Amino acid sequence: MKPSQPNKLPTWLAQPTTPVPRAPRHQVNFLARNQRHVQALLARLAQPAPVPRATHWQLTPPMRLLQLGLMLLVISLVHSPVGLWLLALLIGGQLLLLSPSQLRRFIVSWALSSLLALSFIWPSYWLAGPSTLLLFWGKSSLLLANAQYYRVTTALTDFLTALKAWHCPDVIVMTFAIALTYLRMLGNYLLQTMAALDMRTVAPTKHPYRLIGSLFGQLYLKSYAYALELYAAMEARGFNGHYVTVPTTHVRWRDYLVVSPYVGVLLVLILRGV
Amino acid sequence: MHIPDNYLSPATCGTLAVAMTPIWTVAVLKVKVQIKQHRETLPMLGIAASLAFLIMMFNLPIPGGTTAHAVGGTLLAVLIGPWAACLALTVTLVLQAVLFGDGGILAIGANALNMAVIMPFVGYACYRLGQKWHHEKLGLAVGAYVGINTAALVAGIELGLQPLLAHSASGAPLYCPYGLNVAVPAMLLAHLLVAGWVEVAFTLLVFQFVKKVAPTNLYQTPIRTNQRPWLYLLGGLVLLTPLGLLASNTAWGEWSTSELKTMLTQQHVSTQVPQGMVSGLHFKALFSDYAIAGLPVSVGYILSGVTAILIFLLLMRGLQHETQPTK
To answer: Where does this protein have coiled-coil stretches (chain B) (predicted)?
Structure first.
């Protein structure tokens, strides 16, 4: 049977549609760029690079933290190029213990942060001359190298152990532990929310800031719900307000031996009135 | 605003870390009280620290094609309370410095003072004022803007003082080479024009969302009934006032032009007093240096102290609301 008249299309299909204007480039990139940042953070937190363990002369975590602090202090106080050179040789020698992959990671990260430091300090060339610029940059790079070396060679739990050993209040140590654990969880939630927003957004938002309120507001409310559940779980497991999950470590004589040269140099620098 | 290592001298870093110690101690004690009332505050501290981390990592687009990030100091103070925000932000700053290389390890004290104390407390004070005057959102916006800019100003001053505090015999700066005339405008300009507005927008949008969806999750300021600790503190300070009489030298930064000239000459900085100080305003106070004509210095000092306290007490009394007696 032949239809008497052809089927009419609905009006919304019959009318020509104007294409939806694309969001400006910076608006499209805004969520994507942040997604990349969060992904990088999650990758770093999820798969931390294996920490190389020295077979001999392995310092305890509290001493490693002390060593880092003393080393940074010594570098800050030394103003002679020869002294800085010697300190650079020391960190260079330590770097030899790293595996090739970790060394490459160290170099990339250190080079980037050093270049960033240079960009901040570059205008001082016209204010204070090249010698100040070079000395400042050299010292900054050395400080960054030491901090980066600590990061590469220290596990997060070792950092908590060191804080506990140095009599940091339980509230603070626990806050660190929870922050490190939940950073990954909240980061994951933020990433998923951004991905959901990205997929649901078929037309450009009037302003990218409109998303921020719901994005971080939901993140806060989710955090609050997590906190309630977490406390209930902690209480159920017999939590009594003390942080005891971190293993206690005993400082050995060789730890003092390793740290003593730094203390000696520091005392000399202070007594010389540098 | 994260000050890296080597921009501040170790003496400055040490001084600011020591200055932060009592603040951290009070924060821990205050938070312990808060935990007793609301148990969830304990895990919330850690979660708020990670939230602050994510806020500082999240880049927002700004006109001109570049990006900026909020700090969230005022927002956290409003959400979990200023003392808890102080601890959470400190933890975030330590994590950023030690584990992620953002900000200095030696400069933790300075960064914590700027971002974990000044920003949340200034912001929260403005928010409370706004709440009192029934303009909560306006107070929050002003708080976020003033908080971040005050923190930037202090950071600028800390950096700008370095060439004066630490320099070689030839006058070359040993740490941050930018003086106050460069550091303060550079820090303030960026925050007044861009970062401050980003902070305002971020704080307001998230606050509005939380207030609309779950208003009970906002931090409720405890009603203060006991004023006794403050009275003890004030009384103690009054008793300690005569200690000032023991000091013989002029306080740092309160030098007269002749004293300043002597010091500048001794330290080989300059042989002339800055022109602005010579030709600037010279106000003649009624009781200059707390001295009252015809009276010994010590009596004048104590009388000035008592007078100032009385004036402030009268002002406070005058500004207080009238309490209706209950029948």
So the answer is: none
Position B322: which residue type? E
pLDDT digits over B82-117, tens only? 999 999 999 999 988 888 888 889 999 999 999 999
Q: Which residues contact A56 (CB under 8 A, 6 or more apart)?
A: none
Q: Which residue of A has its CA nearest to B99?
A: A151
| Inter-chain CB proximity A223 and B177 less than 8 Å | no
CB of A241 closer than 8 Å to CB of A170 = yes
d(CA B117, CA B104): 17
H helices present in chain B, as ranges: 10-37, 41-57, 73-80, 82-100, 108-111, 119-132, 136-160, 162-165, 180-190, 196-213, 228-240, 257-266, 275-278, 297-319
Amino acid in the structure at residue A126:
W
Architecture field, domain B10-217? Orthogonal Bundle (1.10)
Coil vs helix vs strand at A20? coil
Paired tokens of B214: 């779950």
E strand spans, chain A: none
Tell me if residue B68 falls in helix, strand or coil: strand
Q: What is the pLDDT of residues B182-203, one digit of tens each?
A: 889 988 888 898 889 989 998 9
Q: Which of residues 104-163 of B touch A (CB under 8 A)?
A: 104-106
- Structural contact between residues B103 and B2, judged by C-beta atoms closer than 8 angstroms: yes
Q: What is the ipTM of this complex?
A: 0.80
B69 pairs with which residues across the strands?
A: B59
